[in-house]
Amino acid sequence: MTKRILGIALIAFSLVGLLPVAQAATAAAVPTTVAVAPAPSPDAVLGVWKNGEGTGMIQIYKQGDKYFGRIVWLQVPNNPDGTPRIDVNNPEEKLRKSPLKGLVNIRDFTYSGEGKWENGRIYDPKNGKDYSCEMTLTDPNTLEVRGFIGVSLFGRTDVWKRQVKK
Protein backbone atom coordinates (compact mmCIF):
# COMPACT_ATOMS: atom_id res chain seq x y z
CA MET A 1 0.00 0.00 0.00
CA THR A 2 2.79 2.43 0.93
CA LYS A 3 4.61 1.78 -2.39
CA ARG A 4 1.40 2.41 -4.32
CA ILE A 5 0.78 5.73 -2.55
CA LEU A 6 4.40 6.73 -3.11
CA GLY A 7 4.12 5.84 -6.81
CA ILE A 8 0.95 7.88 -7.20
CA ALA A 9 2.58 10.81 -5.41
CA LEU A 10 5.62 10.64 -7.74
CA ILE A 11 3.34 10.70 -10.81
CA ALA A 12 1.45 13.67 -9.41
CA PHE A 13 4.68 15.51 -8.57
CA SER A 14 6.09 14.86 -12.05
CA LEU A 15 2.97 16.41 -13.61
CA VAL A 16 3.45 19.64 -11.66
CA GLY A 17 7.25 19.79 -12.07
CA LEU A 18 8.17 18.78 -8.53
CA LEU A 19 9.61 15.36 -9.40
CA PRO A 20 13.25 16.27 -8.51
CA VAL A 21 12.10 17.41 -5.05
CA ALA A 22 10.07 14.23 -4.56
CA GLN A 23 12.98 12.05 -5.73
CA ALA A 24 15.30 13.76 -3.28
CA ALA A 25 12.82 13.24 -0.44
CA THR A 26 12.37 9.60 -1.44
CA ALA A 27 16.13 9.04 -1.61
CA ALA A 28 16.54 10.56 1.83
CA ALA A 29 13.95 8.16 3.26
CA VAL A 30 15.57 5.04 1.75
CA PRO A 31 18.22 3.51 4.01
CA THR A 32 21.62 3.18 2.39
CA THR A 33 24.66 1.09 3.20
CA VAL A 34 27.97 2.89 3.60
CA ALA A 35 31.23 0.96 3.38
CA VAL A 36 33.52 1.70 6.30
CA ALA A 37 37.22 0.95 5.97
CA PRO A 38 38.48 -1.35 8.71
CA ALA A 39 40.71 0.24 11.33
CA PRO A 40 44.39 -0.48 10.68
CA SER A 41 46.03 -3.16 12.75
CA PRO A 42 48.60 -2.12 15.36
CA ASP A 43 51.35 -3.49 13.09
CA ALA A 44 50.24 -1.43 10.06
CA VAL A 45 53.06 1.03 10.83
CA LEU A 46 55.79 -1.58 10.38
CA GLY A 47 58.07 -1.04 7.41
CA VAL A 48 60.54 1.43 5.95
CA TRP A 49 59.51 5.09 5.70
CA LYS A 50 61.19 8.05 3.97
CA ASN A 51 61.13 11.30 5.95
CA GLY A 52 59.50 14.44 4.52
CA GLU A 53 62.80 15.97 3.38
CA GLY A 54 63.78 12.77 1.60
CA THR A 55 67.12 12.73 3.43
CA GLY A 56 66.63 9.54 5.42
CA MET A 57 64.69 6.31 5.72
CA ILE A 58 63.57 4.86 9.02
CA GLN A 59 62.63 1.23 9.57
CA ILE A 60 59.83 0.94 12.11
CA TYR A 61 59.84 -2.35 13.99
CA LYS A 62 58.12 -3.87 17.00
CA GLN A 63 59.86 -4.96 20.16
CA GLY A 64 57.52 -6.51 22.73
CA ASP A 65 54.38 -4.40 22.64
CA LYS A 66 56.18 -1.16 21.68
CA TYR A 67 57.29 0.33 18.36
CA PHE A 68 60.74 1.68 17.53
CA GLY A 69 62.53 2.99 14.47
CA ARG A 70 66.12 3.06 13.27
CA ILE A 71 67.80 4.95 10.46
CA VAL A 72 68.52 2.49 7.63
CA TRP A 73 69.39 4.87 4.77
CA LEU A 74 70.82 8.36 4.46
CA GLN A 75 70.90 10.48 1.33
CA VAL A 76 74.36 11.61 2.40
CA PRO A 77 75.77 8.63 4.33
CA ASN A 78 79.38 9.81 4.53
CA ASN A 79 81.33 12.90 5.49
CA PRO A 80 83.42 14.63 2.79
CA ASP A 81 86.45 12.58 3.91
CA GLY A 82 84.53 9.34 3.20
CA THR A 83 83.97 8.32 6.83
CA PRO A 84 80.41 7.44 7.91
CA ARG A 85 78.41 10.33 9.38
CA ILE A 86 78.21 10.18 13.16
CA ASP A 87 75.91 11.62 15.83
CA VAL A 88 78.02 14.75 16.47
CA ASN A 89 75.16 16.70 18.11
CA ASN A 90 74.30 14.10 20.74
CA PRO A 91 74.15 15.73 24.20
CA GLU A 92 75.91 12.69 25.66
CA GLU A 93 79.57 12.99 24.70
CA LYS A 94 80.15 9.22 24.75
CA LEU A 95 77.49 8.79 22.01
CA ARG A 96 78.88 11.41 19.61
CA LYS A 97 80.97 8.82 17.78
CA SER A 98 77.95 6.57 17.07
CA PRO A 99 77.13 6.21 13.36
CA LEU A 100 73.84 7.76 12.21
CA LYS A 101 73.04 4.72 10.09
CA GLY A 102 71.52 2.18 12.47
CA LEU A 103 70.70 4.82 15.11
CA VAL A 104 67.39 4.21 16.92
CA ASN A 105 65.75 7.60 16.62
CA ILE A 106 62.12 6.77 17.48
CA ARG A 107 61.16 4.67 20.48
CA ASP A 108 58.57 3.50 22.99
CA PHE A 109 55.39 4.04 20.93
CA THR A 110 52.21 2.26 21.92
CA TYR A 111 49.22 1.72 19.66
CA SER A 112 46.17 3.64 20.88
CA GLY A 113 43.73 2.62 18.13
CA GLU A 114 42.30 4.27 15.02
CA GLY A 115 45.69 4.29 13.26
CA LYS A 116 47.47 6.24 15.99
CA TRP A 117 50.63 5.48 17.98
CA GLU A 118 51.34 7.63 21.05
CA ASN A 119 53.56 8.17 24.07
CA GLY A 120 56.72 7.81 22.03
CA ARG A 121 59.90 9.82 21.68
CA ILE A 122 61.78 11.02 18.60
CA TYR A 123 65.42 12.05 18.49
CA ASP A 124 66.56 14.62 15.92
CA PRO A 125 70.25 14.04 15.13
CA LYS A 126 70.43 17.45 13.39
CA ASN A 127 70.18 19.26 16.71
CA GLY A 128 70.67 16.47 19.27
CA LYS A 129 67.25 17.03 20.84
CA ASP A 130 64.67 14.52 21.97
CA TYR A 131 60.94 15.24 21.66
CA SER A 132 57.63 13.69 22.66
CA CYS A 133 56.03 12.19 19.58
CA GLU A 134 52.89 10.67 18.13
CA MET A 135 52.32 9.05 14.76
CA THR A 136 49.13 8.83 12.71
CA LEU A 137 48.63 6.59 9.68
CA THR A 138 46.51 8.71 7.31
CA ASP A 139 46.48 6.05 4.60
CA PRO A 140 48.39 2.78 4.15
CA ASN A 141 51.44 4.61 2.75
CA THR A 142 51.39 7.95 4.59
CA LEU A 143 52.47 8.50 8.19
CA GLU A 144 52.20 11.84 9.98
CA VAL A 145 54.93 12.08 12.61
CA ARG A 146 54.44 14.90 15.12
CA GLY A 147 57.25 15.87 17.47
CA PHE A 148 56.47 18.29 20.28
CA ILE A 149 57.48 19.69 23.64
CA GLY A 150 54.81 19.46 26.33
CA VAL A 151 51.50 19.28 24.47
CA SER A 152 51.16 18.29 20.82
CA LEU A 153 49.72 21.71 20.01
CA PHE A 154 53.28 23.09 20.17
CA GLY A 155 55.19 21.00 17.69
CA ARG A 156 55.93 20.13 14.10
CA THR A 157 54.49 17.44 11.85
CA ASP A 158 56.55 15.68 9.21
CA VAL A 159 54.86 13.50 6.58
CA TRP A 160 56.65 10.21 5.88
CA LYS A 161 56.01 8.00 2.86
CA ARG A 162 56.19 4.22 2.96
CA GLN A 163 59.04 2.70 0.95
CA VAL A 164 58.84 -0.95 2.01
CA LYS A 165 56.11 -2.76 3.94
CA LYS A 166 57.45 -4.74 6.92
Total count of strands:
8
Main sheet, how many strands, which sense, barrel?
8 strands, antiparallel, barrel
Describe the strand arrangement of the main beta sheet, using strand numbers. Answer: 1-2-3-4-5-6-7-8
CATH C-level class of the largest domain is Mainly Beta
Order of helices and strands: HHEEEEEEEE
- Strand percentage lies at 35-45%
Helix content: 10-25%
Low-confidence stretches: 1-30
Helix/strand-derived category reads alpha+beta
What do the pLDDT scores average to?
84
Query: What's the CATH architecture name of the largest domain?
Result: Beta Barrel
Count the helices. How many? 2
Number of domains: 2
Terminal residue distance: 58 Å
The 3D shape can be described as globular
CATH topology of the largest domain: Lipocalin
Q: Rg to the nearest angstrom?
A: 26 Å
Give a structural overview.
- This protein is of the alpha+beta class.
- It folds into two domains: about 1-30, no CATH class; about 40-165, Lipocalin, CATH 2.40.128.
- About 15% of the residues lie in helices and about 40% in strands.
- It has helices spanning about 1-15, 20-30, and strands at about 45-50, 55-65, 65-75, 105-115, 115-125, 130-140, 140-150, 155-165.
- Strands 1-2-3-4-5-6-7-8 form an eight-stranded antiparallel barrel.
- Strand 7 (about 140-150) and strand 8 form a beta hairpin.
- The longest helix has 14 residues, at about 1-15.
- Mean pLDDT is about 85; it is low at about 1-30.
What's the topology here?
Elements: H1 2-15, H2 19-29, E1 47-50, E2 56-63, E3 66-74, E4 104-113, E5 116-124, E6 129-139, E7 142-148, E8 155-165
Antiparallel strand pairs: 1-2, 1-8, 2-3, 3-4, 4-5, 5-6, 6-7, 7-8
Helix pairs in contact: 1-2
